[in-house]
């Protein structure tokens, strides 16, 4: 078994792993980072999305040995503190952009990558990013609203009720 070094959420880990071990398994089973969810195991659903050298990747399609020496960020690293959420997480909460929460970590990681870009993403880029994630609970409206809010898209007015009234804390 090869020994690899994973730099995960700012910490270095040396692991002996089988050649065919998936990165999801290394993160979840070896490092106890269970926020990276395993959904379809075919790279379709996006639940396993992590950042590898600041780029979103499907951890279920990545072998642990491929991540040797690279920087990995998981959903466990996103919130600045236990008392404070990252703006992407806060928008998901404020806009009710989650239900069961299974897909949420992968969505948050993809949106985090957009949030950290030098140039702010446009609505089309946000929608394209979200199209790579499957959510079985929602109709995507609240997830999309949260993404646009967190990433500061022009023209965002915030979630409104059926009468067109903005909810408290919505908008800019």
UniProtKB/TrEMBL annotation:
<protein>
    <submittedName>
        <fullName>(2Fe-2S)-binding protein</fullName>
    </submittedName>
</protein>
<dbReference type="InterPro" id="IPR036884">
    <property type="entry name" value="2Fe-2S-bd_dom_sf"/>
</dbReference>
<keyword id="KW-0560">Oxidoreductase</keyword>
<keyword id="KW-0001">2Fe-2S</keyword>
<dbReference type="InterPro" id="IPR002888">
    <property type="entry name" value="2Fe-2S-bd"/>
</dbReference>
<dbReference type="Pfam" id="PF01799">
    <property type="entry name" value="Fer2_2"/>
</dbReference>
<dbReference type="InterPro" id="IPR051452">
    <property type="entry name" value="Diverse_Oxidoreductases"/>
</dbReference>
<dbReference type="InterPro" id="IPR006058">
    <property type="entry name" value="2Fe2S_fd_BS"/>
</dbReference>
<feature type="domain" description="2Fe-2S ferredoxin-type">
    <location>
        <begin position="2"/>
        <end position="78"/>
    </location>
</feature>
<dbReference type="InterPro" id="IPR012675">
    <property type="entry name" value="Beta-grasp_dom_sf"/>
</dbReference>
<keyword id="KW-0479">Metal-binding</keyword>
<dbReference type="Pfam" id="PF00111">
    <property type="entry name" value="Fer2"/>
</dbReference>
<dbReference type="InterPro" id="IPR001041">
    <property type="entry name" value="2Fe-2S_ferredoxin-type"/>
</dbReference>
<dbReference type="InterPro" id="IPR036010">
    <property type="entry name" value="2Fe-2S_ferredoxin-like_sf"/>
</dbReference>
<keyword id="KW-0408">Iron</keyword>
<keyword id="KW-0411">Iron-sulfur</keyword>
């Amino acid at each position: 078994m090869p020994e690899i070094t994973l730099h995960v959420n700012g910490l270095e880990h040396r692991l002996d792993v089988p050649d065919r071990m998936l990165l999801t398994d290394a993160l979840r089973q070896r490092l106890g980072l269970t926020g990276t969810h395993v959904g379809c195991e075919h790279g379709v659903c996006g639940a396993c999305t992590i950042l590898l050298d600041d780029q979103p990747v499907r951890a279920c399609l990545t072998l642990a040995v491929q991540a040797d020496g690279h920087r990995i960020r998981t959903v466990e690293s996103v919130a600045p503190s236990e008392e404070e959420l990252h703006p992407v997480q806060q928008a998901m909460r404020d806009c009710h952009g989650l239900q069961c929460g299974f897909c949420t970590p992968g969505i948050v990681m993809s949106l985090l990558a957009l949030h950290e870009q030098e140039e702010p993403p446009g609505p089309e880029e946000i929608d394209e990013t979200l199209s790579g994630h499957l959510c079985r609970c929602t109709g995507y409206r609240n997830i999309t609203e949260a993404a646009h809010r967190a990433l500061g898209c022009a023209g965002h007015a915030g979630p409104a009720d059926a009468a067109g009234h903005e909810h408290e804390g919505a908008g800019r």
